[in-house]
Amino acid sequence: MIEANLDDQTGEGLGYVMAQLLDAGAFDVYFTPIQMKKNRPATKLSVLGDPQARESLTKIILVETSTVGVRYQTWQRTIMRRHFIEVQTTFGAVQLKVATYDDIEKKTPEYADCVRLAKQSQVPFMTVYQAALAAADQADKEC
Amino acid sequence: MIEANLDDQTGEGLGYVMAQLLDAGAFDVYFTPIQMKKNRPATKLSVLGDPQARESLTKIILVETSTVGVRYQTWQRTIMRRHFIEVQTTFGAVQLKVATYDDIEKKTPEYADCVRLAKQSQVPFMTVYQAALAAADQADKEC
Amino acid sequence: MIEANLDDQTGEGLGYVMAQLLDAGAFDVYFTPIQMKKNRPATKLSVLGDPQARESLTKIILVETSTVGVRYQTWQRTIMRRHFIEVQTTFGAVQLKVATYDDIEKKTPEYADCVRLAKQSQVPFMTVYQAALAAADQADKEC
Amino acid sequence: MIEANLDDQTGEGLGYVMAQLLDAGAFDVYFTPIQMKKNRPATKLSVLGDPQARESLTKIILVETSTVGVRYQTWQRTIMRRHFIEVQTTFGAVQLKVATYDDIEKKTPEYADCVRLAKQSQVPFMTVYQAALAAADQADKEC
Amino acid sequence: MIEANLDDQTGEGLGYVMAQLLDAGAFDVYFTPIQMKKNRPATKLSVLGDPQARESLTKIILVETSTVGVRYQTWQRTIMRRHFIEVQTTFGAVQLKVATYDDIEKKTPEYADCVRLAKQSQVPFMTVYQAALAAADQADKEC
Amino acid sequence: MIEANLDDQTGEGLGYVMAQLLDAGAFDVYFTPIQMKKNRPATKLSVLGDPQARESLTKIILVETSTVGVRYQTWQRTIMRRHFIEVQTTFGAVQLKVATYDDIEKKTPEYADCVRLAKQSQVPFMTVYQAALAAADQADKEC
Fold first, then answer.
1. pTM (2 decimals)?
2. Which GO molecular function terms does the record list (chains A, B, C, D, E, F) (predicted)?
């Protein structure tokens, strides 16, 4: 994880650097609101990425933000195995991500599919999302 | 209350505008972390002041920040009556703000006094703060 | 809505005042992290309640917190009509809140029911929650 | 301004509703992190829009989020007059928004232009941004 | 410390997982508001616990939240030694936690005792809290 | 990095401890709003400092705050090389920090200089800031 505290950066510029870091292969990028000295509201930038990408991700941060330094550290991760299934809903087909770990299994409808079908059928996002979960649940019972 | 959402302002510049607004007579100035469109972490600036100072406080915001507009609205206030008392502690004299409303009364040691005495006696800030509260409590009982 | 900015209150005391205000009939109570002058991280307390309860809620705030004043203001509300239905899941019966407004209808499983059944059946909270939604959806189709 | 406190909504769904509200003509949409009862981290949704759009924006919130009610209130606004100018930089032409109010005038380079030119010339976003400001400043002096 | 970024979890479900983790023996559990990609307000879950409990705490997070992975890392700790004393106040007996480290000693009234006595005597929470601190201070002087 | 979660500390006391830690040589001190158990809004204190200063910084935290323990961990840092240059603006001389790393170079006007000149010439802070950047840019081109 690479982190930098930014107190002389605009929110506009931060939206841009988030996009640059994700394009460059960061696993995840997120902002945390912090409060720095001299009454400065600031933003902590956190970047999760492959240790081998540390140098290239660091350079993007140094180039695109006002910080003169970053700090970094290695975290271990426990990650669930993932595969995808597809279910049929009354609004169309939706992909679900199936994550497993020991005896734990959970399914999450893909955001992009739900957005597309919600707009197409002019129904709320959550309606499509729930329909996908229900269809997946039904498919499980039929097995 | 005057408010503005700022997404192309640095934290550095925000610390400066807080000082300018307080110097100009604002009752209170505070920042709230918000999240705006296009993945922009931003800051909401809130200024409480006298309705008659609205125009002058607005101008400071427009001059010193990047916003092109502010919004404002009148709030009512319920304010406790306040007076000051002084108590003696082993570290020296401390002013307390006494606030009253109906049958409610509360006392708050003055921050600046506690800081000064804490540094002078090289004791923690909270030690002086508690000593002032205890002294005030003792004075009450002796009445 | 009643609001107060609190910079000399502990988090512990704030958890207590939230409970007191909810007991006294406030519709909702929430905290927002803010940043005040002199580098003080602070908390904004917001209380939504009946206009007739303003005086009593204000007194709780003045008694239980360190603030010497509150501000308040009337907001209008658009509220959906609500009734409750009960559905059967494999884990037991769950109440759902059904909210309607014009042609909008949505159902939300009751939190307390889901927690109770999740603990009883030793399944995840979300499993019960989804089962309740699916059962409600099924009931709709059968009508 | 329309507001709703959302404690049973996912971040994913909130990103979606922000897009829907902006598409429907809201002036601005932003999120504030809040803390609600029962240890629930939550998000306050705030929508600024034309008073005449209140009903339609409210319906989007009720349809797309889990809330059963919204609150609203009218704020006054002081808005600077705005027009656009174009300047030439070594990276290409950039539009700047010029905002004026009484004797106050400020210029802000358009975000989209800076992003496009930064990517095209493979330079940092801030380099283009600063170049646009410098060019505008130069143009002023030559007048 | 175990951490997970949650962007497709409701606040309601997060309140539940906090309770589950504390029941399972976590030292501390806290939430931080963060901002993730695609305009998603999200919550970072942080869990402090015994390294030997890592696997069991991780499983609770994977079962009860929507995340497909957690990250973790060992931190060192400097902890003050603690014991409890009891003091008499006009409202009843209050336990205080006494923490010591080298020549540092501090006393903190127990939250549960202060809440119980405050409700019983119908006085503000802070009144009991201060009375307990004053009583402890008095006891020190008499030694 | 040393961290402590503080839920029974006032914002006022936190402003004080930030000053104490910076005076004692901490590289950086910042606050993050967090949410702890029992509905307590709290503040995470983070202190970046030299590993050799860990013991002395820890003691300040234990003395001045209510926490009974801190956690700490070593992070690596990538820091840009820095030197200062001075440029002339129409408002006076401004120092700029020049930071370099490989082929990256960026310049940041010194906050204190900009504040001083802004007040002296009664112009906005950003006007001086931009003038300094433009002057530095001009100086580069003339080389």
1. 0.92
2. lyase activity
